[in-house]
Amino acid sequence: QVQLVESGGDLVQPGGSLRLSCAASGFTFSIYWMYWVRQAPGKGLEWVSAINNGGSTYYSDSVKGRFTISRDNAKNTLYLQMNSLRFEDTAVYYCAKVRVDYGLPIDMDYWGKGTLVTVSS
Fold it and tell me: Which of 6, 21, 27, 95 is the most buried (most CB within 10 A)?
């Protein structure tokens, strides 16, 4: 069955960096779009970044220029490099497998349990 396991969350000071990882199994990782999404305390789910099966990347305006999504298909692993972290980046971060129709992303059909990133001084 599909499994997504996030790791790498931690407490970090503003301006610091973290790299999140997501280990994927149970599906052919290399052919799917993947998302990172996050949920801040008391708020709804927010899309952060996407990467397609060709390696093209997409970012929300709130993280563009600070975060980098990448994938290693040989390791079935998705990454999110987060730099210049801000207080407002505090959230549980989830990786998600994306359902695609005619090559375009539709919605998330599986996601992990998340990893907590806390940005605090």
Answer: 95
Q: Calculate ∠ Cα 82-42-14, nearest 5°.
A: 30
Token duo for residue 89: 């980046």
SS3 state of residue 30: helix
- pLDDT tens string 30-77: 999 999 999 999 999 999 999 999 999 999 999 999 999 999 999 999
Give residues with Cβ within 8 angstroms of 50, minimum separation 6: 33, 34, 35, 36, 57, 58, 69, 98, 105
At residue 104, the pLDDT reads 86
How many whole angstroms separate alpha carbon 91 and alpha carbon 88? 8
Instruction: Transcribe 31-98 into DSSP letters.
Output: GS-EEEEEE-TTS-EEEEEEE-TT--EEE-TTTTTTEEEEEETTTTEEEEEE-S--GGG-EEEEEEEE
Mean per-residue pLDDT for 98-116? 92
